[in-house]
Amino acid sequence: MAFPARPPGQRLPLKLPEVTAILQGSATIVWLPVGQTSTVCGTMSGVALLPFIILLPFIGALAIWLLPARARSSASLLAGAVAVALTASCLWLYGSVADGTVLRNELTWLPQFGLNLVARMDGLSWLFATMIAGIGGLIVLYAHYYMSPKDSMPRFLAFLLAFKGAMLGIVLSGNLIQIVAFWELTSVFSFLLIGYWHHTSAARDGARMALVITGAGGFALFGGMLLLGHIVGSYDLDVVLAAGDKVRSDPLYTPTLLLILLAAFTKSAQFPFQFWLPRAMAAPTPVSAYLHSATMVKAGVFLLTVFWPVLAGTSTWFWIVTYVGLATLLLGAYSAIFQQDMKGLLAYSTVSHLGLITTLLGMNSQLALVAAVFHIVNHATFKASLFMAAGIIDHEAGTRDIRKLSGLYRYMPATATLAIVASAAMAGVPLLNGFLSKEMFFGETALRNPIPFVDVSLPAVAIVASLFAVTYSLRFVHGVFFGPPPTELDRVPHEPPALMRRPIEILVLICLLVGIIPGLTIGPFLATAVKSVLGPDMPYYSLSVWHGFNWALAMSLVALAGGVILFLLLQKYLARGIEAPPFIGHIVGPRIFERLLILLSVRWAKAAERLLGTRRLQPQLVLLVAVATLAAAIPTLGGIGLLPLPPTTFDPGLALVWVVGMTCAVGAAVQAKYHRLVALMLLGGAGLATSITFVWYSAPDLALTQLLVEVVTTILILLGLRWLPQRLETSEIDPFRRFSLHRLRDLALATIAGGGIALLSYAVMTRDAPDGIARFLLENAYTEGGGRNVVNVILVDFRAFDTFGEITVLGIVALATYALLRRFRPAADSIPRPEQQRVQSAFESQRDDHKEGTILSEFLYVPSVLMRWLFPVIVTFAAFLLLRGHDLPGGGFIAGITLAIGFILQYLAGGTRWTEERLRILPVYWIGTGLLLALVTGAASWLFGYPFLTTSFQYVDVPVLGRVPVASALLFDIGVFILVVGATVLMLIAIAHQSLRSAKRDAQPPGKTAPMIEREKA
Amino acid sequence: MELVISLSIGVLAGSGIWLLLRPRSFQVIIGLSLISYAVNLFIFSTGRLKSDAAPILETGRDIATYADPVPQALVLTAIVIGFAMTALFLVVLLASRGLTGTDHVDGRER
Lengths: 1018, 110
What we know:
The complex is a heterodimer of chains A (1018) and B (110). Chain A is mainly α and 1018 residues long.
């Protein structure tokens, strides 16, 4: 494409209006380049303030969120204080960025990936940050009066503040990925704020639509930023900004540009994504004023402005950005005329103004960029005030429908005056800020262009759209404030509280001041902002009200006059109360969006789920095992090589053990369906074989642990068995099913997987061991860790942090089982009382000297006496295992399970009630104490300036025993011990208590026991 | 002996996988326990099989003659966590049986 793109940095020739301005000596600002942009890092106090500006709103949001829902005033005060602090910080920082300095505060995060957290501020981000902070403060004041007492103020303000933080994060980030993260956060908080009144379906739909569209844009932005970082070789914004030529000449430029544009267009509601913005008007008005006119929708154009030096300057940029902007400008202005809802009109007007800004950014002209930044500020001031005025009218008159409203000027003259001035700014009436930036826009579009299409379309659309803007502004003002008194209102409107109007007054005052004396008000700030984008080579421009008679002024006058005429012509048509704009009313973006959403998220998703998914566990597990086997088989078969003969000799004793062990394993597999108790015993057999192997091959700690865990696992599963349904072998036998296809498949899969694992472990065991970390650990266990049992030293010293994580998991699992059993109840017993008990009862009922249950109460009498007597022995043994653990087999885990078995034996011996009457174990406290002790032991090393969990040990002279090493790791091990006791006992007792519950239930008369689920509800 | 141990690991794992693919939740719990034996033994065996070489330091003994303590430390906590997971699974199993009235892994008979 042959469009004459001006590369950024090239000076433009002076144009007539500016020369005139200089000659006439009116208030003009001439920016004189003052040397190269410099970067300041670290030392200045202002730099330290940057992360604070980003974090403070989030901290404030959290604090407000924690307030009770009724704390309206405290929430508003807190939010207001945050806003004041932020605005003051921003204003104070102006001195630091005014000379073109870029403030940077860098926090090392992932330097190996070139990712550091960078807070960065230049002139442009200063302007945006100040706008976000300042208008944010006004919005808080307004919202305090706007929100009804029924709404939760803390929830609203917490979202609003968090949004503000995300927005400040976007503009103050100096890292591409960081920008994306904050960008997504703004989408999320916008979703929450639009959906604030979540009881209405309009709010829910609008919120969802905004989230889907801006979220998709955020995803595109992520892709675009990754590409951009890839092209430049750095994710640092300053590096990227300096690499414009490299980016524009890269083959990946076009996809990068398209992705970033997609993000900017979705966020700034550009055609064809403009439809989410009017739907977002379901949000409370302060949100519309803040997010959907002043700040969030500006994030898109902010992005385009920031990356303008990198991405702009090509014909692709020109054609896409300019014409998407123009289409949006025209479409928005046209649709705004025919809206009946005040907020709808303002929303379409916002869409149109965003289109204007986009058009300016697309024109590849430095002056147009100046105009774009100027218009961003101007639009934020007049549109926010208009939204707030609309909110006041809604609040006081009870409706936003222009058809019902009329003649409100006589009821609320002050509000009306403010709204009229702001509308005039929106229409581009002279002496107001909107006029100035629109003049610059006209000036840019009026420039001759060698391509005839551009030459005609740009000025033509600009005039027509501005004409429409005048029309809808007139319609807004005339329809609401003039004409006969309203007849369809259910109340008499009146002025709002004075403080509610104050934000509007401030913004309108800014509109006026900027409109009348631009050079003295916005001038320097605008210059700083623009300079940070364009660099020291700034084009000459003039901010003044009167530039003499030129094309731009002529276009303004035509638009003003034409707008008035069009409004008069449309009077009759509009009076008919139409609902949608003519010609394009039947093309409804939202409807297309909904259709697409249904297609994607309902039809296709369901089809995909049907095709690829299953809710059944078995096919999933088959797939899991098959894929895992295959994934292991490929490298194994490829690299296994020759298998050497075993390096150790054959040992018939252990071989015999494993003949039994393997038989047990296969037996358990066969018996688990019909003979659960047998399967459980066989499982124990396999476990014993494992334990013997451990002790055989020099792992006494493992053997002990395995043996003890075997005991508790057996008790655990035995406790659970009674609630499983009875299954008799004869009842279901079906000779065909036995050898059905999928059983054969499972058998084959199990055989192949098992064989593969055997092969793999043989291959591992027959190779020479690599020189791992074992040598280091063995050499240093005694000198550094003060223990001779290296396994234990690893657990409580070298890898204590891992152990800390593991005991935490153990505690969590124990609490989870406990919590689950508090809520759920097992099924009723599936088997009637055993025959022995029935015979006993029958016998007892015939005897006078027996009550029913006497024999049962003396069940296992002798063993239970022994078990009681054994209790102190077990406790002592556990203590012995614990204390010797650092030097000999033992330690916290082993001792913990031992003591837990001691407790469980008491339950077995005396029954749950008997035991709990005598021995109150509070396992939850044990878990907490253990974890705390381990944590405190670890944290204590901080006191001595060492990292977390550093062990210290020294030799202590103990009478009788002599010199013994005492390590702080012992304290940690005691923590482990206490936690293991608590967790094991908690799990077992929780299940054991279910028996008590069942017994209670059985004691109730039959028929009274409702099914499980219903009882839960009751 | 490596042959016997690796064969045992294979049989434990194979039996476990067979049970894992069965429809009854009790079968799955036994299967998971068998698999955890196999996995623990496998990790333990990566330290190679050495008799009379427990990593309990004795003064004056050559470092190279001790068994590798690292896999042992890994397996020790794995055994305890394995027990905890068995307990959690058992509770879920009981709750599912109580809620749905069946012990099928999918919560309903097929």
